[in-house]
Amino acid sequence: MRTAAIVPTLNRVAELVSCLDALDRQTRRPDLVLVVDNGSTDGTAEHVRERDGVEAMWLGRPVGAPAAFAAGIREAFAGGADQVWLMDDDAVPADDALERLTERVAQPDAGQPVGGAAPMLHVGAGERYAGWRYGRHADGGRGQSANAPGPGGEPPHDEVDWAPFAGLLLCRDACLAVGDMRGDFVLWHADVEYCLRIRLAGYRLLAAPRAAVHHPPMALTSRQVLGRTVSVGHYPAWREYYDTRNRALLRRSLRDTEFNDATSLPRRAARELARDAATLAADRAGPRRVAMRLLGFVDGLRGRTERRPERGGS
Q1: The domain containing residue 289 runs over which residues?
Q2: Quick one: which of 159, 156, 148, 143 has its CA closest to 126?
Q3: pLDDT digits over 31-44, tens only?
Q4: What's the angle, vertex CA 193, arms to CA 191 and CA 194, rounded to 5?
């Protein structure tokens, strides 16, 4: 089985070096390492050209991680790959991660075909999970829940519904069955949408807790609002637009499926109001963040995907 590691990147050469070093150390090395560059200007191109065993696609301009992953997947399958290993440029897999993942998808199974395997993602110093359950499969039958290790050290579920593109291994047949991932998502939640499409096409995603991938945590500020803890991310305000819009697009596409989010409108509204209040209290850019969320919510309800707020600044 030929495996291609796909690593989109944009102006994060230091993180990319650590990721590529980890791919070099794999006990079962990828047959192809493909860096998909979104138009970096920080020396990424020079480093990749000097590195043995790494190929590159130069997109020339930022198109977003989903479109970059999609381009890399097409290239890998055109070159004969049987599996793609989707890797954030700041993810660092353990030395045996790919070996463990390929063993997991190769295990004989008489049920539905296997579409891929999710590693145990170690986020920062504490959070760990091997994929997520979604919709009716989630804890409580709504929203989503992490497949996190229990008291015995093992996650409760052998199958999951989605996993981040930070070490997720996907099989060729599953990807070809559902087509490209949605480049119009630009960032955030494209991994959820793509994995759920694979699941709805009849493929299983297996948890592979012995395959470890390390990923840095997102920088957050937490505030207590209306009796609940709400976290606010340290990133440009325009990113809030895609978070809110893409969640709305996802709910819309899943409305008549088993992954429909059954969270009631009042509960969802209370959660979003608490989040907006925390944002206004914790961040001087709070008003712009909330405005971006409102705009994203409206566009998501309407199914509009052509707006690009990042082109107007943060």
Answers
A1: 220-312
A2: 148
A3: 999 999 988 888 89
A4: 65
